[in-house]
Amino acid sequence: MMEQFKKTVVGFADTLTIFKNFLTKRQEEKQSFKVEDLARDFLGPEFTEGLHNAAQDIKILSTLIDKINVPNDKIISMAKSTPFILADRALKKYFKGAVTSVIASKIALGRINLTTLKKAFQFGGYDSVKMLLAENINNKPRVTKNEKTIKAIVDRLDQRDKTDSIGLHRRHPMQRSRYGVDLCPTAVITTVACFIASLMTEENKTLVVDCNKVKRVPEKVMTAL
Predict the structure, then answer these.
(1) CA distance linking residue 89 with residue 133, whole number of Å
(2) At residue 186, does pLDDT exceed 70?
């Protein structure tokens, strides 16, 4: 559904930004840019009825765009693509508390989404993420060269990556009940997954899963239920 949406809706433009850009005198005089005030001043009092209803607001805004005579190419130049908006939203949510929303938006503006960042981190850790964010584009970094900011981003990626991996470790024994896999194969698969995810080393084997552990997990869950 989302893919179909992105094919149909290529982007969004903020009408407030458009109106402020074209109605410079109104902005200089610090007049209101509320929909009802714009509708009254440019379209007439009768157009203020039924506002604050989504469908009606869209009709009025469209009429205002036509009345003010905003060219389509200007609207397009001020619009943000749907992929950017989705990436921006995901990045802000993921990095909340780690970096500012401004940095998250700069990452999205640099055409970097969360999936790309995660792949860079998994491929080469700090160095790969730094290379991606600090890439020189027209003598400016794609996002930032600030070491503190990059470290904060990498730390969050590292934190979430470990959390996801631990979640994988905890979930695997339960898959035995779901898919009917025997105890020992489930134990082997889970142990290998932990090793691949770097949760276990030759020195630290506390996460090794044996057949009995696989058997106990569903029993504990059933008891808790």
Answers:
(1) 18
(2) no
